[in-house]
Amino acid sequence: MSDSPNRSVSRRSFLTSAGAAGALALAGCTEGPGGESTGSQLSGSVRITGSSTVYPVTQAVTEQFRSEHSQVEFNVSRDGSGGGFSNLFCEDNSDFNNASRKISSDEQSQCSDNGVEYHEINIATDALTVIVNNENDWAASLTTDQLKEIWEADGASTWADVNADWPDEEISRFGAADTSGTFDYFREEIIGEEANHTSNYEPTEQDNTILQGVQQDQYAIGYFGFSFYQSNQDAVTAVSLDDGEGAVEPTLDNAKSGDYPLARPLFTYPKVSSLAEDHIAEFARFYVRQSANTDLIADQVGYVPKTEAEMQSELDALNEVISNAE
Amino acid sequence: MATQNETGFGQISRLRGTVFKYLTFGASLVGILALGVLLAYVFWDALGLDSAGTAWYLTYTVVLLAPLLGFLAYARDRPAVTAGALELVGFTLAGGLLSFAAIIVLIVIAGPQVWLTYFLTVIAPLIGLFLYGQYDREATWVGLAMLGTVVAGPIAGTLLLGTIGSAAALLGAPGVYFLSLVLPGAGLAAFLAADRFDASTRVSVGTGVVIPVLAIVGVPLVDTVPVMARSVWFAVLVLLGMPVGYAVANTARRPARRAAFALPAIAVGGLLIGELVVGAVGASQPSPWLDWQFLTSPTSSLPVSAGLYPAVIGSVFLIILVSIFTFVFGVGTALYLEEYAPASGPVGTLTRLINVNISNLAGVPSVVYGLLGLGIFVNIDVQFGPVGYAGIGAGTVLTAALTLSLLILPIVVISAQEAIRSVPDSLRQASYGMGATRWQTIRNVVLPRSLPGILTGTILALGRAIGETAPLIMIGAVGTKYTPPGGLFDTLTAMPMQIYTWAFLPSEEFRYGVVAAGVVTLLIVLLSMNSIAILVRNKYQQEAY
Amino acid sequence: MSNEGQTPDLTGDRGLQTVRESTYKYALAGCALLSVLTTVGIIAVLFVDAAEFFASPVVTLGEFFTSTRFSPNLEPVSFGILPLVLGTLLITFGAALVALPIGLLTAIYLSEYASPRTRSVLKPMLEVLAGVPTVVYGYFALVYITPALNVVIRTLNGAVGTQFPTLGLFNGISASIVVGIMIIPMVSSISEDAMSSVPDSLRQAGYGLGATKFNVSLRIVVPAAVSGIASSFILAISRAIGETMAVVLAAGSRPPDIPPVQTAFGIIPYVGPGDLLGLYSESAATMTVAMINIAVSDLSGGSTAYQSLFAIGLTLFVITLGMNVISDAIASRYREEYE
To answer: Is C164 in the same domain as C21?
Structure first.
């Protein structure tokens, strides 16, 4: 009876003392002869808040930046685009706010009330992907009208309602919560103005539950950002969409070229007063330059990078704002 | 003559009782089994055990597991050996955690200047007053003086930060820690030797002298190891070495307990031999997610290089602050409500309202506390005449600590109240009968007896606080931070926050491997805390009777 | 008279002692005041924004309390709190069903039947249950419990022919189980402390009268410790009501649909057991889930939808307050004091 605690205790104490020793080692490191910076003298801290969709991009970019400027500290949090604006950015508590949609008028007035000036940067594009179960061999390609029928309120309730050849089974839907930017975008693009999005679906803020739901149910359908599909391509099947010009697969190239219908822009909003500081201005430029970096944005994270030309115009606009800020 | 059937009292069926006993036993196991399954899954993933070959399992079973089981079977019937083993393990654990926490707080976060300042203005006077109070029992002003120091000390320290800071710079970081850790530690060692072990004056003084000497002698050795700094060596010597030394001395001096030394011998020896054998045989080892690199590097967008270091530091910092705050205010509130507050009359009704209020607060969801923290610590801007208060920062250590403290305070208060209530009133009356005042009764009778119960409640509550994510999200704690917090007003990330961030990233390796490693780290910290609390509680329970 | 040097002076030092006593008394009272301030703070923070929410032209109080649909952003927009209350009730009831009996039985075992050594091993293991982060519990429910339960249901349906509905990815049963497991230690630890503090003389008196251990435990100890047990129940249920992260993951973000209420004999309203089971096998977002989803969403901070968060919080606060007032009244009636 008393063997398990004791055995796991000695393992525990080994791990704890190992961890302690590790921390000792590191503490020793931090106390070593004054910081030898890797070349750069930039230092300071940067606070980035906002959308969880843009978060992976920011994380990858800040990591890259840190490898060249190790003295700059980053604080990145995921508060949602709206939460980030109203609780933090427009209350003058952060330097950048990421958003998966443009800033709203309420947020604009809140920012101006608090004297927060911002600059809008389009940092990447997301190819919103519709997924079905791997066993689903009938709906690997859908027209946008069929998609609308599946997802609108009082629309189809079984697959057979959409197309009589398809199985007469109820559709299980998994999608973004109605409070997210992804939902807003999907509704605007697919459902349109006249109809409503169905409420007969499983809403969630966590995209991997959409993945799991579709993976486990043969008659399920879901939608989320491309980065989730890219990391789990064997688990589910991506649906090719046809908006009248032929079925287009959801790939980054198709989104970049504009053929894929569901391509939504992602933004980041730096605070103008923060741009007066050197390390933030330098990071902002780096951020914009990375937006055209295919390795980082496309391969590592899973979004559509900007073209060189687009990146350059953003960079020019940014530089102008920076020089006005100083 | 009087067999059972002929007594005339009849038979009572024992069946119901036995069934009930096994039913309750089964019930106790349900939760533990569920926990066991969960832990097994998590540990399996974190330690990457599925990639280890049979040879590896076989080796460690023979070299480590079997001797340990043998030792446990041996110790089962010998309570002295068990007690010795528990003491050794417990003190090593406690010492390890203490030195770990102290290094993080005193060296990494505070730094020599800040530490020296608050040591001189708060800690040293408190220790001095305490010692004087032990020596001269008649001086009743000591308690008040200590209270005064706690209030005035930090203020004085903040004012004198500059002057003492430059003094610290003169002494140098190792010098500061030598003065503030090693010397008091030596004094404590000498005192313990004389008091607990009844050593002669010479031996006690000798013990006291050995420690600074060891510290100084070890310096050139430590200097050769590039990663360990002198201050760290001092901290380890005092905070880990002394508890372990105490346990070792305690065990060594009783012949019945000496067999307990087999436990560390088996553990260390077994691990070393196991490593040698596995290396020689070339068995496939497990590929753990939880390894050195994980514990000492910051997070990253690549699963293989992601780590938990800043989050661990953040969590430790948080827990220390939260435990101090909740213990002081929680026990204080409970004492007031149970001992001082009248039970009837208008103030009595107020007391009952406060009680109901506290019960209610215990059920308020953590999200609401997050909103509270956001509202009064972050997004606030009020003016009280000349003084303005604009909050203490979004996602800073202090905001998070205060918010979490408010969250678990009601739970601590309620458990403390139950513990204090369970102290029989006859003891209190006896104390009053001897002429003690209310505070004396509380300090000498009520508190010692209720301390185990209070500790139970506090540990449960702290365990909850470590794992809370929702309030941290609301107050703006960050999901990605590459460096640990440097002070009270620095932003922080904590372990649950980091795990939560990882759990919803697209890559499967993050969700199943890195998250598991994070959860295991968190659980290890938790288990260590719980173990220490249990040992302390057991010790107090023995002494109370 | 002759021991003047040794007798303490009973008449002197009153001044300082009074000062000391008063200082401690007021210092402790100050601590107690903190809890009051916390409540005031919470009410203030919630009220200010909830008032704005109700003042908005889109929302009416009546609609808030009677509408059967909660959808802040999905057309047609409706802010009805009933589905969320139903979700909270489902999860809390389910969790209580799991945790209260198991916790109480565990406490009885630990305090009455277990040997000191078993007790010293079991009790800490149970306390670890309370420390596992709630996110992990929710994740565990989603990844392990739901599929396992579905396997059991399918085998049962196939073998015995019952018509139990299979569980969706998000469902109320897994959430209830997991929250229940999480709160078992609260019930068991605190109840056990209460039962241990029942004086042994009562037990011995029972044995002396010829009662079996079973009788003594159930008929003497448990009733004697009822106030401690009740307060542990209340604490545990409060925790279940306020649980957020585990429920978000396990029970999803969609509030349950209000089931049709049938009447028996024309007067007594009831919900059919089939409907009830159906409720549990689908997502059941609670009030706390709705709050956190709105809080981390992309909604604009000043919008009505965002402010509904505060209205829900206020309702939750009022509900738990009412529950605690009632339970305090009941508990104080039954509290027993010894010696």
So the answer is: no
| Structure confidence by residue, pLDDT tens digits, A280-312 | 989 999 999 988 888 888 888 888 888 888 889
In 3D space, the residue among C150, C102, C167, C154 whose CA is nearest the CA of residue C129 turns out to be: C102
Report how far Cα B26 is from the mean position of its chain's Cα atoms.
31
Q: Which structure tokens are listed for B317?
A: 């910092």
Q: Which residues pair with A223 in a beta bridge?
A: A130
Regarding whether C85 and C48 lie in a shared domain, the answer is no
Q: Are residues C42 and C119 in the same domain?
A: no
Hey, is C236 helix, strand or coil? helix
How far is the C-alpha of B134 from the C-alpha of B112, rounded, in Å? Answer: 30
Q: What percentage of chain B carries pLDDT values higher than 90?
A: 6
Which residues of chain C make contact with A222, given a CB cutoff of 8 A? none
C98 vs B261 pLDDT, higher one: C98
Q: Answer yes or no: is C6 within a domain.
A: no
Q: Is A155 near chain C, with CB under 8 Å?
A: no
Average pLDDT, chain C: 82
- Between positions 56 and 75 of A, the ones with CB within 8 A of B are 56, 58-60, 62-63, 66, 73-75
Look up residue A112 and give its two tokens: 């101006």
Give the residue numbers spanning the domain of C42: 16-55
Examine the domain organization and report whether C309 and C171 are in the same domain. yes
pLDDT (tens digit per residue) in B408-448: 998 899 889 988 988 889 999 999 999 888 888 888 889 88
Catalogue all structural domains in chain B, each as residue range(s) with its CATH number: 38-53+291-415+450-545 (1.10.3720.10), 76-268 (no CATH)
Q: Measure CA of the first residue to CA of the last residue in chain A; give whole Å.
A: 70
Q: What is the nearest CA distance from A234 to chain B, expressed in angstroms? A: 12
CATH number where C254 lies: 1.10.3720.10
Per the structure block, which two tokens stand in for A251? Answer: 């790939």
Whether C76 is covered by a domain: the verdict is no
Please tell me whether residues C153 and C35 are part of one structural domain.
Answer: no
CA distances from B6 to B2, C210, C211, C268 (A): 6, 17, 19, 56
Place of tokens 């002692």: C17
* Burial class for B461, CB neighbours closer than 10 Å (0-12, 13-18, 19+): buried
Chain C nearest-CA distance from A173, in A, is: 11
pLDDT (tens digit per residue) in B338-364: 888 887 888 888 888 888 888 788 878
CA C232 to chain centre: 9
Low-confidence ranges of chain A (pLDDT < 70): 1-40, 179
Is 0.95 exceeded by the ipTM?
A: no
Distance CA(B458)–CA(B461), nearest Å, equals: 5
What is the reported pTM? 0.79
Contact C185 B522 (CB under 8 A): no
Whether residue C253 sits in one domain with residue C147 = yes
**C-alpha–C-alpha distance, residues A40 and B246, integer Å:** 49
Average pLDDT, chain B: 81
For chain C, which ranges sit under pLDDT 50? 1-4, 339
